[in-house]
Amino acid sequence: MIKRRNQFLKKFNFNYKNIIFINDNFLIFNKIGTIKMIPTKNNEESIINYLYTYLGDLLFPLRVLSRLDITTTGLFIFPLNSCFYFKFRKNLIKNILKYYLVISKSNINFKHKKLKISGYLKKIRNRMIFSKKFHNKSVFSKTNLFFVDKRKIGNFYYYLLVCTIVSGKTHQIRCHLLYLNLKILGDMKYGGSLKSFNNLHSWKISFFYKKNFIFYTPPSLDFINLYKYFNFKKKFFYERTN
């Protein structure tokens, strides 16, 4: 078990640096690499299992507020007591603002600065399907997009986006961007290219709990290198992550 744990820590760079902030109420974690947040079976490699190993016994069981997909990197919150958990669980999206960085590819020249998309998501097999109309067992979803910068290479446009979610549904941003033909680079499930990594990153979290909290984390080195390759606005990115 110790050997397997050490292999896990090395593979996913899991150490105290992944814990951005911790106090008596909550823990802010920076997810790096492709890994499950919550185990589907006992002793499965997951962030929760190894946080228990790292932190030791806790009075309050670890639960995730607004989990990330297995391929999405960045920040999320673990409540460390019931008061914090139930305060935010009731109205999660309203009380906790999350901002996602995205690099997308499209054959459409979007001239928007902002764009809102809303509609209904329904799970079919292992994917979410978007529709403007309600269907049986579908759920409402809404995402705000901010177009930060774009570059044209050949017949395609590459966009740096910031996305905020008004409703928190599974694969919401990924599915909405596919519908708009703004496919996330690296997101093979939803039409993206580049198999090496997924360019969807939970970049910023802000909320109020006795005082204002704002947390940032830079994306992966692969994301940053692609960001530099397209020569997107450096001022926007680095002022908020250094």
Short characterization:
The protein is α+β, with helices and mostly antiparallel strands and 242 residues long. It has helices spanning 2-11, 47-55, 82-89, 92-95, 172-179, 221-229, 234-238, and strands at residues 19-22, 26-31, 73-79, 96-106, 114-124, 127-131, 139-153, 156-165, 183-184, 200-208, 212-216. It has 2 domains: 1-90, 2-Layer Sandwich (Pseudouridine synthase); 95-242, Pseudouridine synthase (2-Layer Sandwich).
Q: What is the element string, with H for helices and E for strands? A: HEEHEHHEEEEEHEEEHH
Overall number of structural domains: 2
Whole-Å distance between the termini? 37 Å
Q: What is the number of helical segments per DSSP (H or I, 4+ residues)?
A: 7
Structural class: alpha+beta
Q: How does the major sheet shape up?
A: 11 strands, mixed
Going by CATH, the architecture of the largest domain would be 2-Layer Sandwich
Query: Would you identify the CATH H-level superfamily of the largest domain?
Result: Pseudouridine synthase
DSSP strand tally: 11
**Net shape:** globular
Percentage of residues in strands: 35-45%
Mean pLDDT: 83
Radius of gyration computed on alpha carbons? 18 Å
Oligomer: single chain
CATH topology group of the largest domain? Pseudouridine synthase
The stretches of 5 or more residues where confidence is low (pLDDT under 50) are 1-12, 238-242
Report helical residue fraction: 10-25%
CATH class of the largest domain: Alpha Beta
